Amino acid sequence: MGRPLDVATVAKRIGRSPSHVRRLIESGRLPAVNVGTGRLRPTYRLDSDVVDAFLEANPGRFPDAGDFAPDTPEDHVRARLSRR
């Protein structure tokens, strides 16, 4: 079992938006676990091994997937400052 990833991290990893990832989850194409308490806005976690298998099973559909690099604390600071 790989490490748990949130929707935003998976979206960055596959080069799509978080809403696209949620649609993949809700359609059953991408398995995830709802770790939240509410049904209206679930909080999903995805296994990194499952995401890797999904990408391997869908070659060419997610061309930006190879550009993934984990976020660093500096990335979070830059993103926060750019929103000001």
Features:
globular; 3 strands; Arc Repressor Mutant, subunit A
Low-confidence stretches: none
CATH architecture title: Orthogonal Bundle
Q: How many angstroms separate the termini?
A: 38 Å
In total, the number of strands is 3
Compact overview of the structure:
This protein is mainly alpha-helical. It contains 4 helices and 3 strands.
Report on the structure:
With 84 residues, the chain is mainly α. The chain has a single domain (4-82), classed as Arc Repressor Mutant, subunit A. The protein has helices at residues 7-14, 18-26, 48-57, 73-82, and strands spanning 4-6, 33-34, 44-47. Strands 1-3-2 form a 3-stranded antiparallel beta sheet. The radius of gyration is 14 Å and the shape is globular. The chain starts with a strand and ends with a helix.
Task: Describe the SSE topology.
Layout: E1 4-6, H1 7-14, H2 18-26, E2 33-34, E3 44-47, H3 48-57, H4 73-82
Antiparallel strand pairs: 1-3, 2-3
Helix pairs in contact: 1-2
